[in-house]
Design a protein that fits this description.
With 145 residues, this protein is α+β, with helices and mostly antiparallel strands. 19% of the residues lie in helices and 36% in strands. The radius of gyration is 23 Å and the shape is flat.
Length: 145
Amino acid sequence: MMIQNKNNSIVFLFALFILGMSCTSEQPYYEIPMIQENGKVLITGISKATCENPTPGDNDFTIHVQFATAKPGDVMVSEILKPDENGALTPLSGSKKSLTVDDELKASVTYTLQEAQLEKIGDFIVVTFAGDTDSGIITVTLEEE
């Protein structure tokens, strides 16, 4: 009986040690720097997407994106993700649009409420932006007027 308690204590202490290490260790995966063509590290910001949430009286809405690492002329693809009956986000068929990044590293895309299938107040979608050099994401919700 004494040996079993000692083994349980060792296993418990080992698990506690592993848990403690995972909570306190550095997790650099979110701080991965980009390496420039000249070999120097480039620390960048994060792309920011903004949109005034639409209301039932609106026909459409426009999303503006300020990219952090894109280059002028880059092509980004926007796509709508909509929750299915289980709540999982799935791509909305026919929602992909191509955008070209301008000289200020900005791009905009407009969707109609019908394209986004925003029908009832509280309906929401997630719009993703993806390209070779940058990405972005935003949630758009149909709000009351």
